[in-house]
Amino acid sequence: MVRVVESLEPPSGTPYAAQTRRVYDVLHSRFVLKLTQEETAERLHISLSSVQRAQREAVHTLARVLWERSRAQEPLLEGRAQGSGAQPFEEEALGTRVPDWRTQMKQEMASLRSRDPNSVADVAETLHGVLELESALAPGRDVHVEVGYVQPDLVVAVHPSALRQTLIAALGRLARHTSSGPITTFARLREGDVRITIRGSITAEHGLTEEDLTRDILVPEGTTVEAGIQGDHAFLWINVPSLGQIAVLVVDDNPDMLQFYRRCTTGTRYRIVHASTGQEALERIKIFPPDVIVLDVMLPDVDGWKLLMQLYEDPATRSIPIIVCSVVREGDLARALGAALYLPKPVEPRQFVEALDQVRPQASGGAPEVPANSATTD
To answer: Whole domain around residue 72: which residue ranges?
Structure first.
């Protein structure tokens, strides 16, 4: 990856404001120097929002370059494989052998993982990002890519760039054999993994096989790709290991608190999902019950105390430990109504993670115990 980024450096006379210069500077700062977004903003003398916007553009450019290079190397390397096998003079003289593009891609993916072993990818975010490359994936064809149903809050244990390259390769391969119409992607949990399905209508090609659809699609370690042909439709299924994190539903209408909780849990097994209202929380819990609930009792649509009582009294949700985190200093009331823990705001990051650690056994055990003196009357 570092070599690819360095190859994008524009000539020395390129204006600072030029897109090629901006793309290179952001990629170099983030992936070579490994600076944070804040440090990158300071180094480039631009705002944080400008860094975030420029990084999105730069990553898309990097993905396109990797894709184009893999496509360009394929026929060249196949030609070498069909030849005498003799190494070029320069390689022979140096006693080295240039690895083929498959080996290089595998090395790049392994390098991403080794440099950032705790990296994870948000499936929905990655899919929508790949869609921005639609015109390059199916050039000159009456084909467009769309996202169908994606189960909320899917997170996989692979580097985002590695997942992105696998999706780009899979979509590009299917696009070559798609006659017209949409290529649709879906994603959901299946037997502990995230299954990403890519479906498209195929042309009436004689002899198209499942192997043709999966050939040369490289995947990160632990990920598999399968293909199927059913009538005039072709399918690719990418099975990616789910992160296996502990889902923490934060019920809070303050977006700053949501970002704070996510920063607190970065690098841990806790995965923050969000509901800004009580009604949204109930809907989310009904579809995908979380392992832990963090509840602010001051909500815009319902009384948080009543929501706490409702969750504790319902057999379907009683076993989910609830942490009440609020500026309201009513810890005894929170515990009496069924909360496993009470945290007063403002809360320290370590204190928040320790609270999650404390209730985590309850997430796989049973309902939290309520003190004997916790009975209340209306």
So the answer is: 2-98
